Amino acid sequence: MCNLLPTQVGKCAWTSISSMQLHHLAKYKSCTWNRKTVYCNAVSATSTTPMEKVDFRKLQNGSDIRGVAVAGVEGEPVNLTNLGTEAIAAAFAMWLLDRKKPDASRRLRVSIGHDSRISAQALQDAVSRGIASAGLDVIQYGLASTPAMFNSTLTVNEEFFCPVDGSIMITDLFLLTASHLPYNRNGFKFFTNGGGLGKADIKDILERATSIYDKIYVEGFENREKTDSAVKKVDYMSVYTSDLVKAVRRAAQDIEKPLEGFHIVVDAGNGAGGFFAATVLEPLGAITTGSQFLEPDGMFPNHIPNPEDKAAMKAITQAVLDNKADLGIIFDTDVDRSAAVDSTGSEFNRNRLIALMSAIVLEEHPGTTIVTDSVTSDGLTTFIEKKLGGKHHRFKRGYKNVIDEAIRLNSVGEESHLAIETSGHGALKENHWLDDGAYTMVKLLNKLASARASGTGVGSEVLTHLVEGLDEPAVAVELRLKIDQNHVDLKGGSFRDYGEAVLQHLESKIDGDPKLQKAPVNYEGVRVSGFGGWFLLRLSLHDPVLPLNIEAANSEDAVKLGLAVLGAVKEFSALDTSGLDKFVQRL
């Protein structure tokens, strides 16, 4: 395949064609297929199969790229191909070159890592070819965590070719609503030393990828040989984990093994987080026997690696109880999310993890603002503001939204040190606003180590004590009201417009009900308090779905809130309310 790819220092990296010649070649649009031989202007070669069309726009998922990389699931055709991946990687290289503007004496470097998914190696090879084809150096880390990939843009260590100029993590998100374990899916997250790329950046990269892909005609093996020399492999995870170990030792007054005697079990869910037991906890003196599912396995045979998943949390809770451990730690696939379990089996996830992290951060930074996503509970607000003396700023769903809002608040003079989602994404100002599940757990370990060093407490009860007083609802449920995009009611319009119409109608109905009160400050959907609880109906960030969250002190009040929503939305025929119908019939 001869890619008409981005240029560096006046030359196209995969050919000897100058950038000026490339410009002129790109203007020609004629391309003749003849017996699987491609004739395109001055370039010709043999191709085994015609290229399939790819709609790169559909691969965007907010600030990430996601798609189907492996065939085998009915109704999910592959749209994240190796060839498309090369184009995306080359587009990122173009984007990076435009921003870094290196001189002729320096080649830019891009690090690449992946989680345990079965398509990881093939995609890593494709990404490497795309990056190297643009004249950039590729640093492969192999199995890695997403936080480590961002960290590689900050580390100063020439032995490991750091800092890199950009970084790509090959990973995807597990959705709780998926009907199967999504082994077939994968995606990309992109970083520079300024943090993760935003939605506009991803849109730009995919537009570039479309242009590059359209200019790819035949494969040139000569150029693939050239790219090999630009690829280096290093064990960067050893650098990253060493920094985590040092952070815990500092918190414990530089004691070498501050966790000696602590029994801590880790559940990596067969993702990329298995390193935490052997390379972080054990050097700190912790006992890790009973840790489970540490081996990477892209088929995820035990449970979904997701701190929000009930089966996953049950698995780590059982491991803690069976091993009589002091603490349990669980990670998602790429270790940017995490949760914990204390020695009694009580979970620190969702609102409880946010409460715990808020307590730790507000001890260090009294009065600071805690930024969360929109589905956090009223009880959490009371806990942060009345018990801890902080300020709770409830914003939108989406980890990037939450992080960017915390950064914005700081820029306008409102101090914020923690941005955290109920999903387990947590980012701290002290850690460059990186959502790092391992670093979140390090903050918990710091608390254990410092409490022991100062003689103020031993064991996970130190953490449990910090969330005492958090009011937790007896009923907490999320229902998903799907929009049928083929329904006649949409009349060719978008699901987003239809969903907004549903929300506007609900809002008008609430205005006329004295038993219900809209939240005075709200950034997403319609949030309403009443009957001793609350509900939030919002439009999904990416899917034709209206998620409905309801929390209440008892089932009867929860049903009353559900009926209030159902009464307002039942006239929208394209909206599937079957889940809500079933919920309100529970009494």
From TrEMBL:
Reactions catalysed, as given in the entry: alpha-D-glucose 1,6-bisphosphate + L-seryl-[protein] = O-phospho-L-seryl-[protein] + alpha-D-glucose 6-phosphate; alpha-D-glucose 1-phosphate = alpha-D-glucose 6-phosphate; O-phospho-L-seryl-[protein] + alpha-D-glucose 1-phosphate = alpha-D-glucose 1,6-bisphosphate + L-seryl-[protein]
Cofactor(s) listed in the protein's UniProt record: Mg(2+)
GO molecular function: phosphoglucomutase activity; phosphomannomutase activity
Keywords linked to the UniProt accession: Carbohydrate metabolism, Glucose metabolism, Phosphoprotein
Transmembrane domains' residue ranges: none
Enzyme class: isomerase
GO cellular component terms attached to this protein's record: chloroplast stroma
Tree of life domain: Eukaryota
GO biological process: glucose metabolic process
E.C. code: 5.4.2.2
Residue stretches making up the Alpha-D-phosphohexomutase alpha/beta/alpha domain: 59-211, 241-345, 350-451
InterPro entries named in the record: A-D-PHexomutase_a/b/a-I, A-D-PHexomutase_a/b/a-I/II/III, A-D-PHexomutase_a/b/a-II, A-D-PHexomutase_a/b/a-III, Alpha-D-phosphohexomutase_SF, Phosphoglucosamine_mutase
CDD domains: PMM_PGM
Assembly and binders: Monomer.
Family: Belongs to the phosphohexose mutase family.
Entry protein name: phosphoglucomutase (alpha-D-glucose-1,6-bisphosphate-dependent)
Organism name: Aquilegia coerulea
